[in-house]
Amino acid sequence: MRKLTTLISAVCCFLAISFYPVHPAFAASKSSKKPVHAKMNPAQRAFFENRIRPVLVKKCYSCHSAKSEELGGKLRMDTRDGMREGGESGPAFVEGRPDESLLIQALRYDGLEMPPNEPLPEAVITDFVKWVEMGVPDPRSDLPLIAKKPNTVSASADPALWSFQPITNPELPAVQNQHWGVDPLDQFVLARIEAVGLKPTYDAAPRQLVRRLYYDLTGLPPTLEQVETFLDDYQRRQQAAVKTLVDELLASPHFGERWGRHWLDVARYGESNGNDGLSRNPTFPHAWRYRDYVIQAFNNDLPYDRFLTEQISGDLLPAETPAERDRLLIATGFLALGSKPAKAMNVNFDMDVVNDQIDVVSTGVMALSVACARCHDHKHDPIPTSDYYAMAGIFLSTETMWGAAGHQPLTAPETPLHVLKAKHHYVAPPDSGARPVLNKRVQARKKKPKYVYPAGTPLAMGVREKKKPTDCKINIKGESKKLGPSVPRGFLTACNMTSSPKIDASQSGRLQLAEWLTSDDHPQTSRVMVNRIWLHLFGQALVRTPDDFGVYGERPTHPELLDHLATRFRSEGWSIKQLIRSIVLSRTYQQSSFCEADVRDADPENKLLCRHNRRRLDAESLRDSILATSGQLNPDPGLGSSIANVDELVNTAGNLHLPSNHRSIYLCMLRHSEPAQLAAFDLPDSTKPVGQRNETTLPTQSLFLLNSDFLIEQSQAFARDVLTDPKLKETERINLVYQRTFKRLPESFELQRTLTLLQDLDRSLNTEVSQTEQRRLIVWSTLCQALLTTSEFRYVD
């Protein structure tokens, strides 16, 4: 029976997709012809810089670079083109096919042997395999770049170093249409549009606008009643109705769930370590407390400067109550959540932990790849190795607390955890119900716990000061056993700031780091966060590489607007809610996503913001919307985590994902073992900060929509609800399904087409199903599933 339902669903979904016309802008993007590898995305660039380039520098350049005394095999590996052209044996790789690539064969010691002295660790070889599978994304130019000297003159004079220049508060530009804008930001946008002889498109229809606002601010669809209430109010009060709705949504507890998820991507949030090179993946049973801290911070509109300060140095801040002390300790989980390598196979373990912390602070807060300067001066940004180790000293003077790491001898070593004091402020983690099925050999090798806590003790990941803070010595070529001179703890020298805080010799420097990042004249912090907020409201950022404000990142499309918003952000108390409110009430945000053909042709990428962007729901919003539409969503906050009592290896513990109808942010987010309901739709792997998710279109997504157990179950629940009232006519029932799914009644052609479809489905079941109730459930659940997979449901105008 289930096979029959799936087959019918597949047919019906194919038909239902055509119910909703393809958006013109979307159609244009689909038809544009671009080379597959014309432009690497930020995640690919970060992967190369953090996983590939350091290995090439340390292990390959001595024999395969322009500086080699004798070029081995006539193969250059210090340039992109050199590797593509290859040497005596041919090209180093075949893009997308690692097994056929000479590079991978050499690393595996399969015929060739590279490096010749000893093979690389298996985890490193796996990184190179993944790199080739990606298509070998490589940002290097033909000639090796030389990092620019980090001084004030170069940072001010070089346009490529725009993000190091001080933030200005530009004057509002003159515009011809004095009546179009409603917020100062509109003038910056309109001035650019008018400068090229174009005009903004028309305003979004109220029905489109209300749905856009609900998704952007809460991540949930509005109910039919909420849509009708807004439309009635809008008819009477126009923009006053929009302001009322925006204020209601900003005050909703669902706001923190939506915007907290955006930050968790940046914070590389995960509830397990991820595979560490030995295919071990220990759980982080207490990571969920950081998730709840982030949600609460966004709901409380914690000022962004304070938000950063708590996450970097919460353990050093004063607290008036035990509950406040606990909250500040939990905040420092930001620095402890990172994925750790296996201690047993990594002599650089401690410095790898430090590198992860430098990366999340520099990439997440400043959008700069400081971690690239671990082995050598940064190849293109003005970040010398000495700056890297100045920051490294801060985190080397910090004790990172992640817990037991599965109690296994080859994983990361066990550490203590923060013990929380105000128990009545924290709900005890629920019994997960999970019954780990442990491999006997793995179970036998479990270590005796070094740190033992009474049952039920509330614990949290985080950091604290080491007893003896110390400066860090330069690790020559990134090797912790090859030490150079010591570097005093400090910050990036290229940031053009009036002064930097002095680090007390008795402290790590984390408190001063937070003070430095949130200084009024820091050139990146406010720009980066403003850019991230713009990205999530428009689907594209003003700087389209939100994690890279360096030389290889894109320039801002509207540099004056970016600085205007960064200045407002700081002057209005670093309030995220206030900035979002200003943006969504602007004329720019409230434009329609439809536009005239000549405007689309003149600006196909919408860099001028002549219209809004149509966007696909992300993984969490899609799942939450399906649950909301089927009537199965539990809107209450989820408590704890399904692994809150499971301190084991994910890969030996059986299925740790338990059924849940709570919002997706409360699902257990295990690294390399994501929730099946989300995995097909571009979840980040949570090993690196991610400011912008990839958006791919893959066969696995279609298969999920057609065959997912979750979607079939929700479609059946939806159908049962629709069939509850026996007095409804078929047309009334169809109207009800459309209203719940699309918040509108079906058009006449849709109504007739749906009636025909229901009849055809019913006839196809004559010989398969005899019971009337079962037949009706199959037919109607098929229709419900079809509508839940349409473009109209999955896209926001």
UniProtKB/TrEMBL annotation:
Domain DUF1553, chain residue ranges per copy: 509-757
Signal peptide location: 1-27
Cytochrome C Planctomycete-type domain boundaries: 60-118
Transmembrane annotation, as ranges: none
Pfam families, per the entry: PSCyt1 (PF07635), PSCyt2 (PF07583), PSD1 (PF07587)
Domain DUF1549: 184-399
InterPro entries: Cyt_c_Planctomycete-type, DUF1549, DUF1553
Keywords: Signal
Transmembrane listed as a keyword: no
Protein name from the UniProt record: Planctomycete cytochrome C
